[in-house]
Amino acid sequence: MFGIRKAKCDRIIYLDTDEILSPKLRKDLRSIVNNASKNYVTIRTAMIHLDSKERLLLGSFWPDWKIRIFLKDKIIYRRIIHEQPIVIR
């Protein structure tokens, strides 16, 4: 929450330390965020899980929808690990 409060932008993209964005995904997300209405508090994304050899893990891992983009003044996190955002109105 400390880092979120210090951010200068209205929208935040929240990533865990083991998550990465490809250059194409970065471009696509920027376009989605720039075109999103201010009425959207959150944007959920489907996470793709890869094993250590970068093989796609499906099964119970797919789709893994998570809120990863949000308006910074409309979300709080209460836990330290495996946290889920809480939307405030």
Please sum up the structure shown.
The protein has 89 residues and is an alpha+beta fold. The chain has 2 helices and 7 strands; from the N terminus they run αβαββββββ. The chain starts with a helix and ends with a strand.
As an assembly, this protein is single chain
Q: Tally the beta strands.
A: 7
Mean pLDDT, all residues: 83
Count of the separate structural domains: 1
Q: Helix and strand string, N-terminal first?
A: HEHEEEEEE
Please give the share of residues in helix.
Answer: 10-25%
Number of helices: 2
Distance between the termini: 17 Å
Biggest beta sheet summary: 3 strands, antiparallel
- As laid out across the biggest beta sheet, the strand order is 1-5-2
| SS-based class | alpha+beta
Beta fraction: 25-35%
- The stretches of 5 or more residues where confidence is low (pLDDT under 50) are none
Q: Radius of gyration in whole Å, from Cα?
A: 14 Å
The general outline is globular
